[in-house]
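tokens incoming
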């Protein structure tokens, strides 16, 4: 059995809250970002709320523990009639990297986007995140756009 076969990717559930929060905190820390507990509560609630179609999330699990997460935002886009998916957060615990978890999470987002009839899935990453970009170059097409922010 391969390492990849032992990994289960599934929709996030209420029971995942503590482990999701731990992983998301580590993800934000990687980007030198700190948020208060109120934001964790707010985001987790939106990810679970079936009445809020603007966000969804999946987690990767092995041996009863979460090892990865992906949080996505669904939004309108001026160039398409259909909505698009912004893959906002993708994180795999250091202990589980290199085993296909990131690819599985991205593929699940692609599958969900296809089920929902979305026009596109996109994401951004830091220019120095070379490890992640090795995966991204295999599963997506790099664009010429640069992000600006106020």
């Amino acid at each position: 059995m391969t390492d990849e076969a032992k990994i289960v990717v599934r929709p996030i559930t209420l029971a995942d809250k503590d482990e999701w929060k731990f992983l998301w905190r580590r993800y934000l820390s990687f980007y030198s970002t700190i948020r208060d507990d109120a934001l964790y509560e707010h985001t987790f609630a939106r990810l679970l709320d079936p009445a809020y179609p603007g966000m969804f999330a999946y987690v990767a699990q092995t041996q009863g523990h979460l090892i990865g997460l992906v949080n996505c935002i669904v939004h309108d886009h001026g160039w398409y009639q259909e909505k698009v998916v912004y893959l906002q957060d993708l994180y795999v615990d250091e202990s589980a990297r290199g085993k296909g978890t990131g690819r599985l999470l991205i593929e699940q987002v692609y599958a969900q986007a296809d089920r929902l009839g979305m026009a596109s899935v996109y994401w951004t990453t830091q220019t120095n995140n070379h490890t992640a970009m090795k995966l991204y170059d295999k599963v997506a097409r790099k664009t010429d756009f640069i992000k600006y922010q106020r």
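note: The first strand starts at residue 8 and ends at 11.
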